[in-house]
Amino acid sequence: MPSNSTKNKGSLVVKIVIPIAIMVSLAMVIFGSWLWRGKYMSKYISQPSFATKFPKVSYNDLARATQGLSTSNLIGGGRYSYVYQGKLVEDDIDVEVFNLETRGAQKSFIAECNALRNVRHRNLVPILTVCSSIDCNGAEGGALVYEFMPRGDLHKLLYSTQDSEGSSNNLITMAQRISIIMDVADAMEYLHHNNQGTMVHCDLKPSNILLDDNMTAHVGDFGLARFKISSTTLLIGITNSSSVALMGTIGYAAPEYAGGGHVSIAADVYSFGVILLETFIRRSPTDDIFKDGLGIVKFVEINFPNRVFDIVDPQILQELELCQETPIAMKEKGLRSLASMLNIGLCCTKSSLGERINMQEVAAKLHRIRDAYLKED
Predict the structure, then answer these.
(1) Pairing between β-strand 234-236 and β-strand 226-228 as defined by DSSP bridges
(2) What is the pLDDT of residues 89-108, one digit of tens each?
(3) The Protein kinase domain covers which part of the protein (predicted)?
(4) Beta bridge partners of 129
(5) Please, what is the angle between helix 174-189 and helix 265-281, to 10°?
(6) End-to-end CA distance of the chain
(7) Hey, which residues does 219 pair with through a beta bridge?
(8) Which of 196, 94, 187, 110 shows the shortest CA–CA distance to 145?
């Protein structure tokens, strides 16, 4: 029989050595997971091509640049991130900050990094650098640094100065509206048709359209973007096809998303069409008047083309009346241009995907409308 000392030694092994071995193994697994995660993140985030002006910027540098992510510097936000205005090395910047510990934020951050490293166009928001590190509170954070857009976003331009009765004192000329929509169309044409890997934005809306000093529009926020590899299948994104109904924003998301349809460039076209209609009638698709089956698309359809002047932003009518050209001639040209613009919006928002025109057609039509409107008679 084994002696008591042998039993005690065996008991000691069970009580001390085995728990230590388990703890060491667990620590190795955690460290390996952390190391893999770091390599996985760096694969997507450490992109030298981003570092055009600020090659090495820490998360804490960006916190200081935005006065500690102060609410006074907050200019916008989405489901996974917030956008702050700041100043870095004497340059004004916009900083999109992600809390990577929030569920879904890390995938959104990686998706946006992936999207931005693959696209270059004058009407896409210019990115200066990217940062992923631990913040001063020990939380894992990520940030994208963009060129500062002094005119804010299209939603702000349309609605920020509305009075209590809903009318707006913020002057946006007819020509500016056409140009902004044309800029967005050019950006979307590039994403859909001229990029090496076709990209679907998946969340196009006015707050994602930023304006520089010259009122040139830039499409941003690629946190939901996906790259197409076939007519219906997508390679990169933050959701799978079974959860596609969660994509986009209410009022702008294509109707097929609600039924669990596949992501497609046609869905972006629908969102673009809603934005076009909204820009000229100056009513959000979630406006209180849109209820009981009446949406922004149906509202325009039932008034098109004979009652166009009854539904467009009154500011446009006032502009046409005050034009130095003869009022009748200018009104006729304005009516033609408005009808043409709204018609494009309606062609983009057909309920059937196959009936919607593509962004190549849209961009070409918009350039012709802009040229015709600006041409002196």
Answers:
(1) antiparallel
(2) 888 899 888 877 778 788 87
(3) 69-374
(4) 145
(5) 170
(6) 114
(7) 124, 209
(8) 94
- CATH top class, domain 154-374: mainly alpha
pTM given for the model: 0.78
CATH topology of domain 52-147: Phosphorylase Kinase; domain 1 (3.30.200)
pLDDT in tens, 3-22: 555 555 556 555 565 666 55
**Distance of alpha carbon 333 from alpha carbon 369, whole angstroms:** 10
203 is catalytic: yes
| Residue (of 231, 228, 186, 227) closest to 209 by Cα position | 186
H/E element holding 226?
strand 226-228
Domain boundaries, the chain: 52-147, 154-374
| Catalytic hit among 135, 203, 221, 268 | 203
Residue 240 burial (10 A CB sphere; 0-12, 13-18, 19+): exposed
Q: What is the phi/psi pair of residue 85, to 5°?
A: -90, 140
**CB count in 10 Å sphere of residue 23:** 10
**Of 299 and 220, more confident:** 299
CA distance 3 to 5: 5
Q: At what angle do helices 296-303 and 265-281 cross, to 10 degrees?
A: 60
The secondary structure of 294-334, three-state, reads CCHHHHHHHHCCCCHHHHCCHHHHHHHHHCCCCHHHHHHHH
Distances (CA, A) of 6 to 3, 15, 19, 121, 253: 5, 14, 20, 76, 73
